[in-house]
Structure prediction request, 428 residues.
Amino acid sequence: MPRFRRGAAPRRRAASEAETIVQGGPPVVEEEVVPGPPPPPPRPLIWPWLLVLLILVAGGLIALWLLTRDDNHHGAATVRVPDVVNSTQSEAVGRLGQRGLVARIVTRPSAAPTGTVFGEKPSAGTRVSRGSMVTLSVSSTAAVTVPKVTGLQAADAVASLRGRGFSSQTSTVVSTKPPGTVLSQDPNAGVQVSRGSVVSLRISRGKVKVPNVVGQSRPNAVATIRGAGLVPKTVQVPSSRPKGIVVAQAPSAGIRVAPGSAVRLNVSRGASATGAPPPPPPPPPPPPPANATIPDVTGMSQAAAQRRLNASGFKAGVVYVSSSQPQETVVAQSPNAGATATRGTRIQLNASLGPNPAAQQTVPNVVGMAAAQARARLRSAGLKVQQLTRAVKKVSQAGKIVDEQPSGGRRVPSGSTVTIYAGRLTTS
Prediction:
Protein backbone atom coordinates (compact mmCIF):
# COMPACT_ATOMS: atom_id res chain seq x y z
CA MET A 1 0.00 0.00 0.00
CA PRO A 2 1.58 3.37 -0.91
CA ARG A 3 2.51 5.80 1.90
CA PHE A 4 2.83 9.64 1.90
CA ARG A 5 6.24 11.12 2.32
CA ARG A 6 6.78 13.37 5.35
CA GLY A 7 6.64 16.92 4.41
CA ALA A 8 4.68 16.36 1.25
CA ALA A 9 1.74 18.63 0.64
CA PRO A 10 -1.49 17.01 1.89
CA ARG A 11 -4.25 16.29 -0.47
CA ARG A 12 -7.68 17.63 0.09
CA ARG A 13 -10.29 15.17 1.17
CA ALA A 14 -13.44 14.63 -0.73
CA ALA A 15 -16.51 16.50 0.35
CA SER A 16 -17.68 13.61 2.51
CA GLU A 17 -14.07 12.76 3.61
CA ALA A 18 -14.93 9.06 3.10
CA GLU A 19 -15.15 7.13 -0.01
CA THR A 20 -17.48 4.23 -0.50
CA ILE A 21 -15.94 1.06 -1.61
CA VAL A 22 -16.78 0.39 -5.16
CA GLN A 23 -17.91 -3.06 -5.68
CA GLY A 24 -15.02 -5.16 -6.87
CA GLY A 25 -12.42 -2.39 -6.55
CA PRO A 26 -9.51 -1.92 -4.16
CA PRO A 27 -10.17 -0.48 -0.78
CA VAL A 28 -9.83 3.26 -0.36
CA VAL A 29 -7.85 4.48 2.61
CA GLU A 30 -8.54 7.81 4.30
CA GLU A 31 -6.04 10.57 3.49
CA GLU A 32 -3.57 11.35 6.37
CA VAL A 33 -2.66 15.00 6.82
CA VAL A 34 0.85 15.69 8.13
CA PRO A 35 1.21 19.05 10.09
CA GLY A 36 3.67 21.64 8.71
CA PRO A 37 6.73 23.11 10.54
CA PRO A 38 6.10 25.51 13.45
CA PRO A 39 6.01 29.32 12.62
CA PRO A 40 9.26 31.35 13.26
CA PRO A 41 9.47 33.34 16.54
CA PRO A 42 8.44 37.11 16.30
CA ARG A 43 11.23 39.61 15.57
CA PRO A 44 12.17 42.14 18.37
CA LEU A 45 10.77 45.77 18.01
CA ILE A 46 13.46 48.46 17.17
CA TRP A 47 11.48 51.76 17.04
CA PRO A 48 11.25 52.27 20.87
CA TRP A 49 15.05 52.24 21.05
CA LEU A 50 15.30 54.67 18.17
CA LEU A 51 12.91 57.04 19.99
CA VAL A 52 15.00 56.88 23.17
CA LEU A 53 18.15 57.65 21.16
CA LEU A 54 16.46 60.62 19.47
CA ILE A 55 15.41 62.07 22.85
CA LEU A 56 18.96 61.75 24.18
CA VAL A 57 20.43 63.51 21.13
CA ALA A 58 17.87 66.36 21.39
CA GLY A 59 18.63 66.81 25.09
CA GLY A 60 22.33 67.03 24.36
CA LEU A 61 21.78 69.69 21.70
CA ILE A 62 19.64 71.78 24.06
CA ALA A 63 22.28 71.54 26.79
CA LEU A 64 24.97 72.59 24.31
CA TRP A 65 22.88 75.63 23.25
CA LEU A 66 22.35 76.69 26.84
CA LEU A 67 26.07 76.52 27.51
CA THR A 68 27.12 78.42 24.38
CA ARG A 69 24.22 80.85 23.86
CA ASP A 70 24.87 84.57 23.26
CA ASP A 71 24.65 87.22 25.97
CA ASN A 72 21.49 88.57 24.35
CA HIS A 73 19.51 85.90 26.21
CA HIS A 74 17.54 87.62 28.91
CA GLY A 75 18.33 85.02 31.52
CA ALA A 76 22.05 85.90 31.72
CA ALA A 77 23.06 87.78 34.90
CA THR A 78 26.03 89.49 33.19
CA VAL A 79 26.61 90.60 29.62
CA ARG A 80 29.53 91.80 27.54
CA VAL A 81 29.58 95.42 26.43
CA PRO A 82 29.25 95.46 22.62
CA ASP A 83 31.61 97.47 20.42
CA VAL A 84 29.56 100.49 19.25
CA VAL A 85 32.40 102.90 18.41
CA ASN A 86 31.89 104.44 14.94
CA SER A 87 28.16 103.64 15.10
CA THR A 88 25.52 106.36 15.01
CA GLN A 89 24.01 107.38 18.32
CA SER A 90 20.67 105.69 17.60
CA GLU A 91 22.34 102.44 16.46
CA ALA A 92 24.55 102.34 19.56
CA VAL A 93 21.63 102.96 21.93
CA GLY A 94 19.66 100.19 20.23
CA ARG A 95 22.47 97.65 20.50
CA LEU A 96 23.01 98.42 24.15
CA GLY A 97 19.29 98.06 24.78
CA GLN A 98 19.32 94.62 23.20
CA ARG A 99 21.95 93.59 25.75
CA GLY A 100 19.89 95.00 28.61
CA LEU A 101 22.28 97.94 29.10
CA VAL A 102 21.45 101.64 29.59
CA ALA A 103 23.10 104.30 27.42
CA ARG A 104 24.30 107.64 28.82
CA ILE A 105 25.06 110.19 26.09
CA VAL A 106 27.80 112.80 26.45
CA THR A 107 28.29 115.05 23.40
CA ARG A 108 31.69 116.58 22.70
CA PRO A 109 33.37 118.20 19.70
CA SER A 110 35.53 115.77 17.72
CA ALA A 111 36.82 115.07 14.25
CA ALA A 112 34.23 112.29 13.83
CA PRO A 113 31.03 113.00 11.88
CA THR A 114 28.26 114.62 13.89
CA GLY A 115 26.20 112.07 15.80
CA THR A 116 28.87 109.36 15.66
CA VAL A 117 30.02 107.46 18.77
CA PHE A 118 33.78 107.93 19.18
CA GLY A 119 34.19 106.46 22.67
CA GLU A 120 32.48 104.15 25.18
CA LYS A 121 33.03 103.40 28.85
CA PRO A 122 33.26 100.60 30.00
CA SER A 123 35.12 99.53 26.89
CA ALA A 124 33.87 96.92 24.44
CA GLY A 125 34.18 93.33 25.68
CA THR A 126 33.93 94.21 29.38
CA ARG A 127 31.51 91.94 31.24
CA VAL A 128 29.07 93.92 33.36
CA SER A 129 25.79 93.31 35.15
CA ARG A 130 22.62 93.52 33.09
CA GLY A 131 21.09 96.97 33.56
CA SER A 132 24.48 98.71 33.93
CA MET A 133 25.09 102.15 32.39
CA VAL A 134 27.46 102.61 29.46
CA THR A 135 28.65 106.17 28.73
CA LEU A 136 28.82 106.97 25.02
CA SER A 137 30.88 109.90 23.78
CA VAL A 138 29.01 111.26 20.76
CA SER A 139 30.54 113.75 18.35
CA SER A 140 28.88 117.13 18.18
CA THR A 141 30.02 119.55 15.53
CA ALA A 142 33.59 119.24 14.36
CA ALA A 143 36.24 121.48 15.93
CA VAL A 144 37.67 124.15 13.60
CA THR A 145 40.26 126.90 13.97
CA VAL A 146 39.12 130.50 14.36
CA PRO A 147 40.68 132.70 11.64
CA LYS A 148 42.27 136.08 12.34
CA VAL A 149 39.99 138.95 11.34
CA THR A 150 41.28 141.83 13.49
CA GLY A 151 42.31 144.80 11.36
CA LEU A 152 39.84 143.88 8.60
CA GLN A 153 36.78 145.88 7.71
CA ALA A 154 33.63 144.54 9.36
CA ALA A 155 32.06 143.25 6.13
CA ASP A 156 35.22 141.36 5.15
CA ALA A 157 35.59 139.89 8.65
CA VAL A 158 32.00 138.65 8.74
CA ALA A 159 32.39 137.08 5.29
CA SER A 160 35.62 135.34 6.32
CA LEU A 161 34.02 133.89 9.45
CA ARG A 162 30.95 132.75 7.57
CA GLY A 163 33.14 130.97 5.03
CA ARG A 164 34.73 128.95 7.87
CA GLY A 165 31.35 127.94 9.31
CA PHE A 166 31.12 130.56 12.08
CA SER A 167 28.49 133.14 12.85
CA SER A 168 29.32 136.57 14.22
CA GLN A 169 28.03 139.22 16.57
CA THR A 170 29.29 142.79 16.39
CA SER A 171 29.40 145.71 18.78
CA THR A 172 30.68 149.18 17.98
CA VAL A 173 33.00 151.17 20.22
CA VAL A 174 34.54 154.60 19.97
CA SER A 175 38.08 154.35 18.65
CA THR A 176 40.75 156.34 16.86
CA LYS A 177 40.85 153.61 14.21
CA PRO A 178 38.93 154.19 10.98
CA PRO A 179 35.22 153.45 11.27
CA GLY A 180 34.32 149.83 10.49
CA THR A 181 37.71 148.42 11.50
CA VAL A 182 37.67 145.20 13.58
CA LEU A 183 39.47 146.09 16.81
CA SER A 184 39.29 142.70 18.55
CA GLN A 185 37.73 139.27 18.26
CA ASP A 186 36.67 136.59 20.69
CA PRO A 187 37.56 133.71 20.57
CA ASN A 188 41.02 134.76 19.45
CA ALA A 189 42.57 133.60 16.20
CA GLY A 190 43.95 130.05 16.30
CA VAL A 191 41.59 128.77 19.01
CA GLN A 192 39.86 125.42 18.31
CA VAL A 193 36.08 125.67 18.79
CA SER A 194 32.98 123.89 17.54
CA ARG A 195 31.80 124.66 14.04
CA GLY A 196 28.89 127.08 14.17
CA SER A 197 30.17 128.91 17.24
CA VAL A 198 29.72 132.67 17.50
CA VAL A 199 32.73 134.97 17.18
CA SER A 200 32.23 138.38 18.83
CA LEU A 201 33.74 141.33 16.97
CA ARG A 202 34.36 144.81 18.35
CA ILE A 203 34.07 147.33 15.52
CA SER A 204 35.45 150.85 15.56
CA ARG A 205 32.92 153.55 14.96
CA GLY A 206 35.73 156.12 15.08
CA LYS A 207 35.52 159.67 16.32
CA VAL A 208 34.70 162.80 14.38
CA LYS A 209 35.64 166.42 15.06
CA VAL A 210 32.71 168.72 15.74
CA PRO A 211 32.76 171.49 13.11
CA ASN A 212 32.37 175.17 14.03
CA VAL A 213 28.95 176.44 12.90
CA VAL A 214 28.54 179.47 15.20
CA GLY A 215 27.61 182.49 13.06
CA GLN A 216 26.17 180.38 10.25
CA SER A 217 22.53 180.42 9.23
CA ARG A 218 20.42 177.60 10.58
CA PRO A 219 20.13 175.70 7.22
CA ASN A 220 23.88 175.89 6.59
CA ALA A 221 24.75 174.86 10.14
CA VAL A 222 22.37 171.89 10.04
CA ALA A 223 23.82 170.73 6.72
CA THR A 224 27.38 171.03 8.03
CA ILE A 225 26.66 169.03 11.18
CA ARG A 226 24.91 166.29 9.23
CA GLY A 227 27.77 166.17 6.74
CA ALA A 228 30.12 165.36 9.63
CA GLY A 229 28.02 162.32 10.62
CA LEU A 230 26.48 164.07 13.63
CA VAL A 231 22.87 164.83 14.56
CA PRO A 232 21.89 168.53 14.82
CA LYS A 233 19.31 169.56 17.42
CA THR A 234 18.24 173.18 17.04
CA VAL A 235 16.77 175.30 19.84
CA GLN A 236 15.48 178.83 19.28
CA VAL A 237 16.63 181.33 21.86
CA PRO A 238 16.25 185.09 22.21
CA SER A 239 19.36 186.95 21.07
CA SER A 240 20.58 190.29 19.83
CA ARG A 241 21.95 188.48 16.78
CA PRO A 242 19.88 188.37 13.60
CA LYS A 243 17.07 185.84 13.51
CA GLY A 244 18.07 182.37 12.23
CA ILE A 245 21.78 182.71 13.09
CA VAL A 246 23.50 180.07 15.24
CA VAL A 247 24.72 181.87 18.36
CA ALA A 248 26.12 178.86 20.31
CA GLN A 249 26.78 175.17 20.00
CA ALA A 250 27.48 172.25 22.31
CA PRO A 251 29.81 170.37 22.17
CA SER A 252 32.20 173.10 21.17
CA ALA A 253 33.98 173.12 17.84
CA GLY A 254 37.07 170.91 17.62
CA ILE A 255 35.97 168.30 20.18
CA ARG A 256 36.09 164.71 18.94
CA VAL A 257 32.92 162.70 19.53
CA ALA A 258 31.45 159.40 18.40
CA PRO A 259 29.66 159.36 15.05
CA GLY A 260 25.94 159.94 15.44
CA SER A 261 26.37 162.13 18.52
CA ALA A 262 23.94 165.01 18.97
CA VAL A 263 25.11 168.62 18.62
CA ARG A 264 22.91 171.31 20.12
CA LEU A 265 22.58 174.50 18.08
CA ASN A 266 21.16 177.64 19.68
CA VAL A 267 19.49 179.59 16.89
CA SER A 268 18.55 183.24 17.39
CA ARG A 269 14.90 184.18 17.17
CA GLY A 270 15.70 187.87 17.45
CA ALA A 271 16.14 190.37 20.29
CA SER A 272 13.98 189.88 23.41
CA ALA A 273 11.66 192.58 24.71
CA THR A 274 14.15 193.65 27.37
CA GLY A 275 17.11 193.32 25.09
CA ALA A 276 18.95 191.14 27.60
CA PRO A 277 21.18 188.46 26.05
CA PRO A 278 20.04 184.89 26.53
CA PRO A 279 21.87 182.64 28.97
CA PRO A 280 24.37 180.24 27.50
CA PRO A 281 23.14 176.72 26.87
CA PRO A 282 23.60 174.36 29.81
CA PRO A 283 26.55 172.02 29.51
CA PRO A 284 25.66 168.44 28.60
CA PRO A 285 25.40 166.08 31.56
CA PRO A 286 28.58 164.12 32.27
CA PRO A 287 28.50 160.71 30.62
CA PRO A 288 28.50 157.64 32.84
CA PRO A 289 31.84 155.91 33.30
CA ALA A 290 32.82 154.49 29.96
CA ASN A 291 34.34 151.29 31.34
CA ALA A 292 33.19 148.71 33.84
CA THR A 293 34.35 145.35 35.19
CA ILE A 294 32.74 142.32 33.59
CA PRO A 295 30.98 140.19 36.24
CA ASP A 296 31.43 136.41 36.50
CA VAL A 297 28.26 134.70 35.26
CA THR A 298 29.57 131.18 34.60
CA GLY A 299 27.56 128.54 36.42
CA MET A 300 24.38 130.64 36.26
CA SER A 301 21.46 129.89 34.02
CA GLN A 302 21.67 131.89 30.81
CA ALA A 303 18.55 133.88 31.82
CA ALA A 304 20.05 134.87 35.20
CA ALA A 305 23.37 135.67 33.52
CA GLN A 306 21.62 138.06 31.12
CA ARG A 307 19.93 139.84 34.02
CA ARG A 308 23.29 140.28 35.76
CA LEU A 309 25.03 141.61 32.65
CA ASN A 310 22.16 143.96 31.82
CA ALA A 311 22.30 145.46 35.32
CA SER A 312 26.06 146.03 34.87
CA GLY A 313 25.58 147.87 31.58
CA PHE A 314 26.62 145.05 29.25
CA LYS A 315 24.82 143.27 26.47
CA ALA A 316 24.66 139.50 26.18
CA GLY A 317 24.97 137.06 23.30
CA VAL A 318 23.84 133.47 23.87
CA VAL A 319 24.71 130.36 21.90
CA TYR A 320 24.13 126.75 22.95
CA VAL A 321 27.06 124.32 22.93
CA SER A 322 27.57 120.65 23.76
CA SER A 323 28.30 120.08 27.45
CA SER A 324 27.55 117.60 30.23
CA GLN A 325 26.47 120.48 32.50
CA PRO A 326 22.71 120.95 33.15
CA GLN A 327 20.74 122.49 30.32
CA GLU A 328 20.96 126.33 30.03
CA THR A 329 23.94 126.54 32.41
CA VAL A 330 26.56 129.09 31.29
CA VAL A 331 29.75 127.05 30.82
CA ALA A 332 31.93 129.84 29.41
CA GLN A 333 31.90 133.60 28.83
CA SER A 334 33.97 135.93 26.73
CA PRO A 335 35.51 138.34 27.56
CA ASN A 336 36.39 136.65 30.84
CA ALA A 337 35.15 137.82 34.22
CA GLY A 338 37.23 140.55 35.85
CA ALA A 339 38.26 142.17 32.58
CA THR A 340 37.50 145.85 32.00
CA ALA A 341 35.35 146.67 28.99
CA THR A 342 33.30 149.53 27.62
CA ARG A 343 29.70 149.58 28.79
CA GLY A 344 27.49 148.25 26.06
CA THR A 345 30.00 145.60 25.02
CA ARG A 346 28.34 142.30 24.17
CA ILE A 347 29.49 139.43 26.38
CA GLN A 348 29.36 136.06 24.65
CA LEU A 349 27.74 133.32 26.77
CA ASN A 350 28.04 129.62 25.92
CA ALA A 351 25.05 127.78 27.40
CA SER A 352 24.93 123.99 27.82
CA LEU A 353 22.64 121.78 25.75
CA GLY A 354 22.62 119.38 28.71
CA PRO A 355 23.94 115.85 29.22
CA ASN A 356 20.96 114.40 27.33
CA PRO A 357 20.11 117.10 24.78
CA ALA A 358 16.41 117.65 24.17
CA ALA A 359 14.92 118.27 20.75
CA GLN A 360 15.86 121.68 19.36
CA GLN A 361 13.79 124.36 17.65
CA THR A 362 14.40 127.66 15.89
CA VAL A 363 13.91 130.93 17.79
CA PRO A 364 11.38 133.22 16.04
CA ASN A 365 12.70 136.70 15.18
CA VAL A 366 10.73 139.23 17.24
CA VAL A 367 13.02 142.29 17.00
CA GLY A 368 10.94 145.32 16.05
CA MET A 369 7.70 143.91 17.47
CA ALA A 370 5.80 145.45 20.35
CA ALA A 371 6.69 143.77 23.64
CA ALA A 372 3.30 142.11 24.12
CA GLN A 373 3.28 140.78 20.55
CA ALA A 374 6.81 139.43 20.94
CA ARG A 375 5.96 137.62 24.18
CA ALA A 376 2.90 136.01 22.59
CA ARG A 377 4.88 134.95 19.52
CA LEU A 378 7.62 133.25 21.56
CA ARG A 379 5.20 131.54 23.93
CA SER A 380 3.15 130.20 21.02
CA ALA A 381 6.40 128.58 19.81
CA GLY A 382 6.69 126.74 23.15
CA LEU A 383 9.48 128.92 24.56
CA LYS A 384 9.76 130.69 27.92
CA VAL A 385 10.17 134.47 27.90
CA GLN A 386 12.18 136.86 30.08
CA GLN A 387 11.76 140.60 29.40
CA LEU A 388 14.40 143.21 30.24
CA THR A 389 14.77 146.86 29.20
CA ARG A 390 17.49 148.69 27.32
CA ALA A 391 17.99 152.43 27.02
CA VAL A 392 17.26 153.88 23.56
CA LYS A 393 17.28 157.43 22.20
CA LYS A 394 14.88 157.00 19.31
CA VAL A 395 11.21 157.50 20.07
CA SER A 396 10.36 154.87 17.47
CA GLN A 397 12.18 152.20 19.52
CA ALA A 398 10.40 152.91 22.79
CA GLY A 399 8.36 149.86 23.82
CA LYS A 400 9.64 147.86 20.87
CA ILE A 401 11.97 144.85 21.06
CA VAL A 402 15.49 146.01 20.18
CA ASP A 403 17.31 142.72 20.93
CA GLU A 404 16.60 139.06 21.78
CA GLN A 405 18.95 136.37 23.08
CA PRO A 406 19.36 133.73 21.84
CA SER A 407 18.77 135.68 18.66
CA GLY A 408 16.15 134.90 16.05
CA GLY A 409 17.02 132.00 13.78
CA ARG A 410 19.24 130.21 16.30
CA ARG A 411 18.59 126.62 17.38
CA VAL A 412 17.79 126.18 21.08
CA PRO A 413 16.43 123.36 23.26
CA SER A 414 12.64 123.14 23.17
CA GLY A 415 11.06 124.95 26.09
CA SER A 416 14.19 126.98 26.96
CA THR A 417 14.19 130.68 27.88
CA VAL A 418 14.54 133.54 25.39
CA THR A 419 15.28 137.02 26.81
CA ILE A 420 13.79 140.00 24.97
CA TYR A 421 14.97 143.61 25.46
CA ALA A 422 12.32 146.33 25.20
CA GLY A 423 13.43 149.86 24.37
CA ARG A 424 13.25 152.43 27.19
CA LEU A 425 13.45 156.03 26.00
CA THR A 426 16.17 158.10 27.64
CA THR A 427 17.44 161.61 26.99
CA SER A 428 20.91 161.05 28.46
Summary: The CA atoms of residues 384 and 390 lie 20 Å apart. The longest strand covers residues 384-392.
